[in-house]
Amino acid sequence: MTSPAPDAVIDAAGLVRVYGRGPRAVRALDGVSFRLARGEALALLGANGSGKSTTIKLILGLVTPTAGAVTVLGGPAGRREARAATGYVPEEARRLPALTGRELVTLFAGLQGVPRAERAARVDGALDAVGLSKEAARRRVPEYSRGMARRVALAAAWVARPPLLVLDEPTSGLDPPGTEQVLDLLRRHRDGGGSVLLSTHDRGTAEGLCDRALVLAGGRVRAAGTLTTLLADDPSPTLLALFRRVDRVAP
Predict the structure, then answer these.
(1) Residue 182: which residues within 8 A CB-CB, separation 6 or more?
(2) pLDDT tens for residues 187-202?
C-alpha cells in the first residue's frame, strides 16, 4: 500500500468490494480510487446500485474492502480516531434513538468529546444552524417529518465541528429554504477547512456545494472532475440523465 497523500483527508486506492461467494457474488465496487483534500467538498454521483453507499460504508469502516485500501486522516478507515473525527448523516435519518431533538444532539456532543461547559452553547448553535426551532427540538425524533429528521441528524453530526462530514442525501426531504440553509452550513464548514463527502441525486445540492464530483456506475468511476466540466456538454436538466448516459457509454 502506498502512503496517503499528506493533505488527504480520504485516500482511496483501488477499492474492490464483493458481497457473497460463488456464482451469486456481487461486485459492488471494482477498482475505485479518489482523494478528498482538506477544505474540499466532493460529490459521489450515480444511479441506485452504482456503488455510492458501499463507498461510504468502506470510508466509515462499516465494511472492509475485498481488495484495495482506504485511509481517513492518515490512518486506516474505521479506527477509533477516524470515527471520532467524522460526522455522518445516513440516508434514512429517522432511524435514530427515541430522544428529543435536543437530547439527541446533546448525546452526540458528549460522545464526540465536546467539553461539558461548552455543550449547551454548541447544541444551541447546531440546532440554530440547521433551522430547528426550540419547540421542535423538544419533540421526540420519531415524531419528526423526514425534513426535520434530516436537520437534527446533521446538527448531531456537526455539533463537534469534526474535520470530516460524510453525508448520504443530506438535503432529501427538505424544502428549498431548508435546502439552502443546510448548504450554507456545509459551505461554512468547507470554507473553514473542513471536508465534505456527500452522496446525492440532486443536481442543485452538488452544484451548490461541491468542488468536484465522481460519477459511479456499475461499481466503477466512469467520470471525474468539476461539475462544470462534467455537465458542459450535457443537455439534460437533471443529473439522473447524466448517470444514464454514462452507463450507456461506459466500457
Answers:
(1) 130, 150, 151, 154, 170, 171, 174
(2) 999 999 999 999 987 7
